[in-house]
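We give this protein:

***
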Amino acid sequence: MTWTKKRLTNLFFFIGLAAVIIMLLTFDVSFIELWDNICRAGYWFIPIVGVWLIIYALNALAWQAIIRGNARSDQHVSFLRIYRLTISGYALNYATPVGGLGGEPYRIMELSKDVGKQTATSSVIFYAMMHFLAHFWLWFSSIFLYLLLVAIGDLPLNTTLSIILAAIALFCLVAFRVLTQGYRHGVAVRIVRWAGKIPGLHGWSERFYERHSEALQNVDQQIMALHSSDRRAFYTSLLLEYASRIIQASEILFMLLLFGVDCGGGFSGILLTYAHSILILSFTSLFANIIGFLPMQLGVQEGGFVISIAALGLSAALGIFVSIICRVREIIWIFIGIMLMKVSKE
């Protein structure tokens, strides 16, 4: 590792560590109340935190499918290394404003040691786009899940809800169109050009493009090639990312079961509660991503949980509990991800 890259790694590490400390000191509840909520979760807290081992494994497999689908990439990047970079990258994303300003550059810097800078850049950008695409598919499919629950008489549907669902559907369809264009025509050059439209960045954008135009175009060529020549890798990655969202809903299921919310019990009751958990996750993540410029979406995620849980006829207190436990889980995994930066490949 060059001295410059080592200093950058240390910079990312200290930024993440500082963010964890700030989050702990600025928590919205007292440490006594926080501890009471953790104690209330009891043994359920273990699967709530532990399920993210599976979620991050699916994320890593999705990223690995993209790396292997790139004809220019080294086929022997170990899964364990990709797994570590996945956890650390998400830790930096969660801990910094405008998710991606920390995690994606760190992943590119680290992966470039294995596959070269341009291949690392195209693979990370492509995976980030896939991550967004899976989010939109979760939101889009949740519309039909909600309508299914309406059809069986489990949830209400009125004019206001119909308008909201229609707006979400339109939003997702537009996003599908934009992402598809990005896959087909590349995004690296467009990102630099768009940055030039921001006041104060026009000069930087022009200079950056002049110096790196060939590299940016090569990155776009690799993104387009990945999408057009290896559809199996594309759909495998998308399916794994989507599956990780569905499994993520299980942590909400665990907390609902902790409060005795099981929709009558039995297999059908648990399945229905899991469907509710997916809707809660979907609405909350949509709310948090729309206002994604706050670190860890402070306040937004909590509000999303309270509103989405209340919309399903459950108590606001349950929403607060879920948001607090999810926040604690995030801090734990952010800390783990930051620590893993020190055991990454030198």
Summary: The radius of gyration is 21 Å.
